[in-house]
Amino acid sequence: MTASEIRALFAVASRPEVVSLAGGMPNLAALPLDALSVEVADLVAREGQVALQYGSAQGVPALREQICEVMRLEGVNADPNDVVVTVGSQMALDLVTRIYCDPGDVVLAEGPSYVGALGSFAAYQARVVHVAMDADGLIPEALRDALRTLGAQGITPKFLYTIPNFHNPAGVTLAVERRSEVLEICAEYGVAVIEDNPYGLLGFSGRVYPALRSMDPGVVYLGSFSKTFASGLRVGWALVPPAVRDRLVLAAESATLCPPSFNQMLVSRYLEGHDWRSQIKTFTEVYRDRRDALLSALETYLPEGCSWNVPDGGFYVWLTVPEGVDTKAMLPRAVTARVAYASGTGFYADGLGSRQLRLSYCYPTPERITEGVRRLAAVLEAELDVMRTFGSPVRSASPPPAVGRGPQTPSPDTA
Ligand SMILES: Cc1ncc(COP(=O)(O)O)c(C=O)c1O
C-alpha cells in the first residue's frame, strides 16, 4: 500500500488561505441541519435501544427496501435481500475486490479512474489495466482491444470496474447507446462488471441515466448516500447477484460485524420523512452554479494549450495542461500560491496523467473557485515562462499530443 497523494494533500489544502479544488467533499451547507437535529434527537429518544445497538451484518431491512426505491429512479428492479449496506461505497469496493481477486489478478478500469478504487486494487495486489475513454465515456472498442490483448496472453480479467455517470475524475458520462455494448463485450469474454455510481442522481439537466444493472442483473452495483445526503454518515451499499451476496455478507461481517445501526436508521428516517428528491435538486443547482463558475474562470484565465471537459453532473473537471508542464511537480508551487488541485498521476495505476489534473468545484463558493483558477493560471504562466527561458524542466515519459485551448474530451491520453 502507498499513501494516497490526495490524502497527503488534504492536510495542506485544508488551510483556510488555500483555495482547495482538490478534494471531492460534498457541500453540506445545503442540508436542512435544523430538521436533521430534531430527527437525531427523536431517534435517540424513541429508538435509542435499537439505534445504539449492534445490528444485522447485511444492514437494516427498512433501509434496504428504501435503497431499492432510490435505485428504481435509474431503472433498477432490485430485491432488498440482494442489498448489502456498507460503510460507504468505499467499503463495498474493498470487499468486492477481496472477494473477486487474488494477488496478481488483472482488473480493468477506465483510465483515469477513482483513486480509492485504485487503492483497493493495490491493497489486494490486483494489476490494473486501464481502458481509454473519450467524451462519451468508456470506448467499447478499446475495451474489446484490451480483452483481446489480455486473452492472447491467457488472461481473463476478474472484472471491469466502471463509473458510468459523471465520472471521477474525468467528469464524463457513458453514452446510453454504449451501455449495452459494454455489457455485451464483458459477457462475451466472461468478465464481471462492477458499476460504481455515487453521482448518478447529480445530473445538471435532471436527466437520470439507466444503470448498467438495470440492463443486466449480473452487474454488481455500488451506491452511496455520501453525495446525495451526508458523506460523514458513511452509508453506502452493494446490490449483488445472489451467488455473491452470501460471501459479501461474510466479508462485511469480518470487517465491521455490522454497519452502524444509528447512521442507517437516520438515513432511513431522512428518506421517509424528508423530500430527498428536492434536496438532491437543491444540491445539483448549487453544483451547477459552481461548475459554471469554474468553466467561466477557466475560459477567462487559463493560458493557451489547456483543454478540459464540460461535465453535465457530478463534481469534477479534468484538465490537460500545456505540453512540458508536470502537474505533480507543479503542485507544491500551486499550494504556495494558495491553490490546490489533485494531480493526474494519482488516477492512473501505470504512471500516466502527468499532464493532467482534477479540479473539484463541489466545495468552494463560486467566488473562491474563480479566485482559485486565477491563482492556478498564474502558476501555470510561471511554469510556461520558465520553460520558454530554459526549455522544458520536466517532461512526462511519453507526452500526449498537443491540443488546442478550450473545452474538450477528458484528455488526449485517455482518448
Ligand atoms: C467514484 C467513487 N466511488 C466511491 C466513492 C466512495 O464514496 P463513499 O463515501 O460512499 O465511500 C467515491 C468518493 O468520492 C467516488 O468518487
UniProtKB/TrEMBL annotation:
Residues 391-415 are annotated as: Disordered. Keywords: Aminotransferase, Pyridoxal phosphate, Transferase. It comes from the Bacteria. GO terms for biological process: alpha-amino acid metabolic process. CDD domains: AAT_like. InterPro entries: Aminotransferase_I/II_large, Class-I_PLP-dep_aminotransf, PyrdxlP-dep_Trfase, PyrdxlP-dep_Trfase_major, PyrdxlP-dep_Trfase_small. Residues 32-376 form the Aminotransferase class I/classII large domain. Its cofactor is pyridoxal 5'-phosphate. Homodimer. PANTHER family: AMINOTRANSFERASE, KYNURENINE_ALPHA-AMINOADIPATE AMINOTRANSFERASE, MITOCHONDRIAL. This is PLP-dependent aminotransferase family protein. The lineage of its organism: Bacteria, Bacillati, Actinomycetota, Actinomycetes, Pseudonocardiales.
